[in-house]
């Protein structure tokens, strides 16, 4: 496999984390748990199978959504008109590993909101967070017939290899820079403000997700 280096930097002149007049991408917090559960439960059977590489019933989906908000890593989402329509997850690569320089990314876009660049936006945001916390490589896995994901990964220059009935690609990440660290800090502050604004009152403030496998780059 020949991993590629992912171009993280956004186009010049664009405010980090925002798209004026378009979908809103932000980090998800434990207070977003109900929106995450509703998102996964809305997924049609084919999308569920593509995301989890197996058939999933509602009970299993709901249980996964609950633990996803407290598991090690980072979760980001895209809201369209106030409803979560796309979700990206960054996790440590490999079962039981909590201090790795390799991360695994999973992307899910609801049917009807695809082919609009949401997957690329999710991946860019997760890649920058991983880069800033010392992760050197991202892995993405999907079913062989998941053509959109394979095109996304291949479009970044990564070689997609079929192993044990799965397609896997690897993306090399550049080292963190002062600009990338500043940009992430700006986005986290903006995300927190947007999350608080979306909370019904009265409600507890969101708490940060644990990132034990990620460490801030030196």
TrEMBL record:
Start and end residues of each N-acetyltransferase domain: 23-178
User: Which GO molecular function terms does the record list?
Assistant: acyltransferase activity, transferring groups other than amino-acyl groups
**Pfam (any one):** Acetyltransf_1
UniProtKB keywords: Acyltransferase, Transferase
In terms of SUPFAM superfamilies, this protein maps to:
Acyl-CoA N-acyltransferases (Nat)
InterPro entries attached to this UniProt entry: Acyl_CoA_acyltransferase (IPR016181), Bact_Acetyltransf (IPR050832), GNAT_dom (IPR000182)
What this protein is called in its record is Histone acetyltransferase HPA2
Native species: Methylorubrum populi
């Amino acid at each position: 496999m020949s991993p590629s280096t992912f171009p993280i930097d956004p186009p010049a002149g664009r405010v980090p984390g925002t798209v004026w007049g378009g979908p809103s991408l932000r980090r998800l917090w434990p207070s977003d748990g109900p929106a995450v559960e509703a998102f996964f439960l809305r997924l049609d059977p084919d999308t569920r199978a593509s995301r989890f590489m197996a058939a999933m019933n509602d009970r299993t989906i709901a249980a996964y959504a609950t633990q996803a908000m407290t598991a090690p890593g980072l979760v980001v989402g895209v809201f369209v008109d106030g409803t979560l329509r796309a979700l990206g997850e960054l996790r440590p690569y490999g079962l039981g590993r909590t201090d790795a320089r390799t991360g695994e990314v999973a992307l899910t876009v609801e049917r009807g909101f695809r082919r609009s660049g949401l997957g690329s936006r999710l991946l860019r945001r997760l890649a920058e967070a991983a880069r800033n916390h010392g992760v050197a490589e991202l892995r993405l896995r999907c079913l062989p017939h998941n053509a959109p994901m394979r095109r996304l990964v291949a479009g970044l220059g990564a070689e997609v290899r079929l192993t044990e009935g799965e397609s896997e690609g690897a993306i090399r990440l550049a080292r963190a820079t002062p600009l990338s660290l500043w940009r992430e800090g700006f986005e986290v502050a903006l995300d927190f403000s947007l999350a608080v604004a979306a909370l019904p009152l009265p409600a507890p403030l969101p708490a940060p997700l644990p990132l034990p496998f990620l460490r801030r780059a030196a």
